[in-house]
Write a structure and sequence with these properties.
Distance between the termini: 36 Å
Oligomer: single chain
Helix content: 25-40%
CATH architecture: 3-Layer(aba) Sandwich
CATH class: Alpha Beta
Order of helices and strands: EHEHEHEEHEH
Structural class: alpha/beta
Largest sheet: 6 strands, parallel
Mean pLDDT: 91
CATH superfamily: SPOUT methyltransferase, trefoil knot domain
Number of helices: 5
């Protein structure tokens, strides 16, 4: 899976999304113009020690992105979409596009992707969720649809061991 940020403006959001992409084994694609420098301390601080492991690609504009990812399955995350993100089937290698924080994805672009536009349900009259939260919500739904194939599904305690009888949540 791939997260695409179209003209992101806030370095902390991009850093947080980069960290999520590393943890999820996904690529991050940034489409210029960026509202910050990738060398900015806020991007790296929010990405912490994950940033150097990030599979990052940067494009000059949306057309450059399309040219370099020809025939890729592209999905548009927008508050303007008629369908909910859980109603979408995400093929492996999908590109999930998010617009800039202040304006989202331009409608001229959205009109070309009507079948793959989706939204996250929210309370009426609310504008949008934080970009990094929205990216994580949709990305993990796409990964869930593929049974989290490349991700670790179990955790371990560092100083103790889990008891076998406490792992069955179906017993109540």
């Amino acid at each position: 899976m791939n997260i695409v940020l179209l003209e992101p403006e806030i370095p902390l959001n991009t850093g947080n999304i980069g960290r999520t992409c590393v943890a999820a084994g996904c690529g991050l694609h940034l489409i210029k113009p960026l509202g910050f420098s990738l060398d900015e301390k806020y991007v790296k601080r929010s990405g912490l020690d994950y940033w150097h492991r990030l599979n990052l690609r940067v494009y000059e504009n949306f057309q450059d992105f399309l040219r370099k990812n020809e025939n890729a399955p592209i999905f548009m995350a927008t508050t303007k979409a008629p369908r909910v993100y859980t109603e979408i089937s995400y093929p492996k290698g999908s590109f999930i596009v998010f617009g800039k924080e202040s304006a989202g994805i331009p409608e001229e672009i959205l009109l070309n992707y009507q079948q793959t536009c989706m939204r996250i349900p929210m309370a009426y009259n609310e504008r949008s969720l934080n970009l990094s939260n929205a990216a994580a919500i949709i990305l993990y739904e796409a990964l869930r649809q593929h049974n989290f194939e490349t991700l670790s599904l179990t955790g371990k305690l560092t100083k103790s061991e889990w008891r076998e009888d406490n792992n069955d949540f179906s017993k109540n």
